[in-house]
Amino acid sequence: MEFAPAITLMPLESIIRPLEATDLEQLVAIEQDAHEHPWKESIHLSCIEQEYPSLVLEIKGGVVAYVVFNYLYDECNLMNITTTPKLQGRGYASQLMHSLYQHSKQAGMKSVLLEVRESNQPALSFYRKEGFEEIGRRSSYYPKDEQREDAVVMRRSLDELPSTPTGLLVD
Ligand SMILES: CC(C)(COP(=O)(O)OP(=O)(O)OC[C@H]1O[C@@H](n2cnc3c(N)ncnc32)[C@H](O)[C@@H]1OP(=O)(O)O)[C@@H](O)C(=O)NCCC(=O)NCCS
């Protein structure tokens, strides 16, 4: 009599590392899938060329999420955080965000600033859960179909950092 091999369910190990130029193709594919108004490849390329300290989260050698950011004076400017749609809701953006806090704090930043479309409810919920607060609006900032929509400007202080969620952080 034959027995079927036992199946062991292992948590998928995630690795966070600096974004590299060779990630560009994967970023552009995820960007197209995840965003209603995706960045063009040239914008991602420009951020890579300017050597922003951006990060990616990998599982089994493939990029599944990324965060693009830059430092200006004592502020970290978060420009893009994205998780591939089929893996959203599993805490990957949150892991990336916590890594961004650590890197930013080490680099001497005092806060994280971002702008988000007022219609982007998932992102607004995500940022609020991460402790961001609305500090202003930029009227008609983003193009939307034939019209424009406001940007919500949000800020989070880096004075107090929550404990890092699970995940292997690689510098
Ligand atoms: C916003 C985004 C990055 C979140 O990524 P994610 O990996 O799914 O986020 P997490 O799993 O870490 O979510 C953490 C928390 O964010 C909130 N959140 C995330 N997705 C949400 C959704 N669709 N609706 C409501 N809240 C959501 C929840 O509070 C969640 O906590 P919970 O799971 O305990 O409820 C993702 O939805 C995305 O890539 N969206 C498209 C790109 C985009 O708009 N990026 C932001 C502007 S650049």
From TrEMBL:
Its EC number is 2.3.1.266. SUPFAM superfamilies: Acyl-CoA N-acyltransferases (Nat). It comes from Kangiella marina. GO terms for cellular component: ribosome. Its main location: cytoplasm. Gene3D superfamilies: 3.40.630.30. Acetyl-CoA binds at residue 120. The keyword Ribonucleoprotein applies. The keyword Repeat does not apply. Keywords: Acyltransferase, Cytoplasm, Ribonucleoprotein, Ribosomal protein, Transferase. The active site is at 115 (proton acceptor), 127 (proton donor). It catalyses: N-terminal L-alanyl-[ribosomal protein bS18] + acetyl-CoA = N-terminal N(alpha)-acetyl-L-alanyl-[ribosomal protein bS18] + CoA + H(+). Belongs to the acetyltransferase family. RimI subfamily. It is found in: Cytoplasm. The gene is rimI. It is an enzyme of class 2 (transferase). Residues 14-159 form the N-acetyltransferase domain. This is [Ribosomal protein bS18]-alanine N-acetyltransferase. Acetylates the N-terminal alanine of ribosomal protein bS18. It holds the Pfam family Acetyltransf_1.
